[in-house]
Amino acid sequence: MIDETLEELTEAIGNAHAALKRDLTKLRTGRASPDILNSIRVDYYGSMTPLNQMASITVPEARMLIVKPYDKTTIQVIEKAIATSPLDLNPQNDGEIIRIPIPMLTEERRREITKVVRDYGEKCKIAIRAARHDAKGILETLKKEGEVSEDDADRAMKKVEAIVQEGNAGTDTIVAKKEKDVMEI
């Protein structure tokens, strides 16, 4: 039962890291990445459809995205969805494809983005702490019910702390890497 609890904790930390990475891919770093358009939804015949399901998104060069709709009749609504998104992008429609130049980030905008990166990192750490709390609760219950000895429970608690420290260090590494990307000119 202790091993299962530790596995669940490790899995929860892995899930928190995956969510953090997914959130960080949506942030603009000054380099073109199709992931920055993942949050855009397009009104397609009354339903909000993710952009990546309506068009192919390519990166022909470091500071340009190309969006090619599967259905050419949707090019206007796709362009409008990109232009009105909070990403501050200026799409250029030529009737066939939409070109999206990625502007350079100002120093002030880079600092704002690093604050958002740190917030995402803190949310990840909160998720890790919640998983630790759950694991400790399970171990305490097992100890009270007499399913595990007190020594085994104490050793498991120490393992929980070690796993959590490792998870927090991983979060710090992910956040530091993204901050470095954002601040890079």
Percent in helix = 55-70%
User: What strand order characterises the main sheet?
Assistant: 3-4-6-5
Q: Average pLDDT across residues?
A: 89
Shape: elongated
By DSSP, the count of extended strands is: 6
Number of contiguous helices: 4
Annotated CATH architecture of the largest domain: Orthogonal Bundle
Low-confidence stretches: none
Count of the separate structural domains: 2
What this model shows, in words?
This protein is an alpha+beta fold and about 180 residues long. The chain has two domains: about 1-25 and about 105-185, Ribosome-recycling factor (Topoisomerase I, Chain A, domain 4); about 35-100, Gyrase A, domain 2. Helix content is about 55%, strand content about 15%. The chain has helices at about 1-25, 75-85, 105-145, 150-185; strands at about 40-45, 45-50, 55-60, 65-70, 90-95, 100. The strands form two sheets. Strands 3-4-6-5 form a four-stranded antiparallel sheet, covered by helices on one side. Strands 1-2 form a two-stranded antiparallel ribbon. Strand 1 (about 40-45) and strand 2 (about 45-50) form a beta hairpin. Helix 1 runs antiparallel to helix 3 (about 105-145), helix 1 runs parallel beside helix 4 and helix 3 (about 105-145) runs antiparallel to helix 4.
Strand and helix layout:
Layout lengths: L1 H24 L15 E4 L2 E4 L4 E7 L2 E6 L5 H10 L7 E2 L4 E4 L5 H38 L5 H34 L2
Antiparallel strand pairs: 1-2, 3-4, 4-6, 5-6
